[in-house]
Design a protein that fits this description.
The protein is of the alpha/beta class. It folds into 3 domains: 168 residues, 3-Layer(aba) Sandwich (Rossmann fold), CATH 3.40.50.970; 170 residues, 3-Layer(aba) Sandwich (Rossmann fold), CATH 3.40.50; 188 residues, Rossmann fold, CATH 3.40.50. Helices cover 35% and strands 15% of the residues. The chain has 23 helices and 20 strands. Strands 3-2-4-5-7-6 form a 6-stranded parallel β-sheet. The protein has a 6-stranded parallel β-sheet with strand order 11-10-9-12-13-14, sandwiched between helices. The N terminus is likely disordered.
Length: 595
């Protein structure tokens, strides 16, 4: 009797390209995808329906909104945000999202469907060469031609987005590549021979920094978004407290050093504090940590910090000596650099750098500036000033023990600068705003993404009427997905920042900056009625006496809530250093609007 043949080993399981990509997302720890479907991305969406227990797919109402939700998720967690769109117009709606993420160093994975490979280049329906469109505004980009490459490409995309200077990666996947079935190889190594995102900082470089500090009598730390991205906030606080060197922060550096700390000089730059700008101007040593010498900080570049020596530490070597020549330029991770500096400061031979009173004359001068020129405004009884509304919001949150953990997002404009000035931030990743690109419409979808990432935290978008209108459709997403992000609209019926420039530099001539329906008409549009149409509760406030109760109602509301606060359009953000000017040209006094 012949032996019974043994069962043959089970053949490897085939998977579609779409299933491979979705499994890759799971393997990289993705728990949320912000995705709008279309013809070229349908296979990916079908695959996402199979893993609803592992990945939450949130349907925005426009691809840009979904991209900014992914940014809110990424900016508050440090993990890559993931967004997805179909080909053609779906993909091109990501262009602003990608440009914004690139300049602000946000780790983002943007997945786009593409027409099938046989018709690439034929102007097929909804075909756009999105990789070519986005080449200059992404950290890296892929057009996948073979299903076999998906697992490797996804591994590389996450690695690139999150290492070195974080940034966005776009992955364009033709429909036939999504549909084809293969046996995936999960162990394919990455193929990035020229990519070296990290570098160990040497002991000699650390000694150079210490030598610069030893020579200085009027040093200042100029801290930027690199503090947040590298997780260096604690190390920076220790360093500043050891050396007693004051800290001035960029817009994206806010929260990287406690705002209530004696050594904190708040924000510097165009709308920064007078005292931080004066200190930078007179400093004999500028410790530039995780910054890029942006024009909104430097003003006239040749005059910026020209009296002192410059140490610049940054993870991106292309930023070193790009705008401002540094005397000591160090390519490396800021957290590592600060930890090495702190270790050396504990040594006896550096005890002289940690002596109290070393900079007493310097701090006395700064304190005099701080006393003379605090962030302030001339309050009024007849109207609600936007600065007052933001200040009251922070005070109410503080009284309820919510201040330090509340996440604030903003749109772009005057409300953004007032939020930076009058809302105190003491922890990283609590302040989320579009800095380098200055993208209106960013605030509310970013707040939604932040809330999805942090369901236990209060998230408030402080927005302007013009900025909020640009992605107002996401109220529908918030309602349907039950995303409890609040909106505080400071409604002045104008494009306020442009109006301010018109007043200051164009004789008050209005160049299409009025958003209302007539100065004698009711506020337009009617945001509470719009919110009601989306199923979102709201409140409208024009009387100052009603503001506190309205803010409390917003904070205590269950679910999304819109608070529309009417404010005057005549207010200007001060101080202000005009573009291309210096601290000597700083404007501190209000003016009556001409028009």
């Amino acid at each position: 009797m012949a032996e019974r043949a043994t069962d043959s080993p089970q053949s490897p399981k085939t998977m579609s390209g779409a299933d491979i990509l979705v499994k890759s997302l799971i393997q990289h720890g993705v728990d949320t995808v912000f995705a709008y479907p279309g013809g070229a991305s349908m296979p990916l969406h079908q695959s996402l329906t199979k893993v609803q227990d592992k990945i939450r797919t949130i349907l925005p109402r426009q691809e840009q909104g979904g991209g900014f939700m992914a940014q809110g998720y990424a900016r508050t967690t440090g993990k890559p945000g993931v967004c997805m769109a179909t080909s053609g117009p779906g993909a091109t709606n990501f262009v602003t999202v990608l440009a914004d993420a690139k300049i602000d160093s946000v780790p983002l994975i943007c997945l786009t469907g593409q027409v099938s490979t046989p018709v690439l280049g034929t102007d097929a329906f909804q075909e756009t060469p999105v990789v070519e469109v986005c080449r200059a505004i992404t950290k890296h980009h892929y057009l996948i031609h073979k299903t076999e490459d998906i697992a490797r490409v996804m591994k590389e995309a996450f690695h690139i987005a999150t290492t070195g200077r974080p940034g966005p990666v776009i992955v364009d996947i033709p429909k036939d590549v999504q549909l084809r079935e293969i046996v995936p190889n999960w162990d394919t190594p990455m193929n990035l021979p020229g990519y070296r995102p990290t570098r160990e900082i040497t002991a000699n470089e650390i000694e150079q920094v210490l030598a610069e500090i030893r020579m200085a009598r009027k040093p200042i730390i100029y801290g930027g978004g690199g503090i947040i991205h590298s997780g260096a906030a604690d190390a920076l606080r220790i360093f500043a407290e050891k050396t007693r060197i004051p800290v001035a922060l960029t817009l994206h550096g806010l929260g990287g050093f406690p705002s209530d700390h004696y050594l904190c000089l708040q924000m510097l730059g165009m709308h920064g504090s007078v005292y931080s700008n004066k200190a930078i101007n007179e400093a004999d040593l500028l410790l530039s940590f995780g910054v890029r010498f942006d024009d909104r900080v430097t003003g006239k570049l040749s005059e910026f910090a020209k009296h002192g020596r410059i140490v610049h530490i940054d993870i991106d070597p292309s930023e070193l000596n790009k705008n401002k020549k540094a005397h000591v330029a160090i390519h490396g991770d800021l957290k590592q650099a600060l930890e090495l500096l702190n270790t050396r400061l504990n040594d006896k031979d550096n005890a002289d750098l940690c002596v109290g009173g070393r900079y007493s004359e310097w701090m006395a001068k700064i304190d005099a500036w701080r006393s003379e020129h605090p962030f302030t405004f001339e309050d009024r009884k007849d109207v609600i000033l936007p600065q007052y509304a933001i200040k009251r919001l922070s005070e109410i949150l503080k009284s309820r023990g919510l201040l330090d953990d509340t996440i604030i997002t903003t749109g772009v404009g005057q409300h953004q600068m007032w939020s930076a000035q009058f809302f105190p931030f003491s922890k990283p990743r609590r302040w989320i705003t579009s800095g380098g690109l200055g993208t209106m419409g960013f605030g509310y979808p970013a707040a939604m993404g932040a809330k999805v990432a942090h369901p236990d935290k209060l998230v408030i978008d402080i927005d302007g009427d013009g900025s909020f209108l640009m992605n107002i459709q996401e109220l529908a997403c918030a309602h349907v997905e039950k995303i409890d992000a609040k909106i505080l609209i400071l409604n002045n019926q104008h494009l306020g920042m442009v109006v301010q420039w018109e007043d200051r530099f164009h004789g008050g001539n209005r160049g299409h900056t009025y958003l209302g329906a007539g100065f004698d008409a009711d506020p337009y549009p009617d945001f509470p009625r719009i919110a009601a149409g989306f199923g979102i509760p709201s409140r409208h406030v024009a009387d100052k006496a009603d503001l506190d109760s309205a803010l409390i109602e917003m904070i205590e509301s269950k679910g999304p809530f819109l608070l529309n606060v009417m404010v005057p359009y005549s207010e200007h953000v001060l101080p202000m250093i005009p573009s291309g000017k210096t601290v000597g040209d700083i404007i501190t006094k209000p003016m009556e609007p001409v028009g």
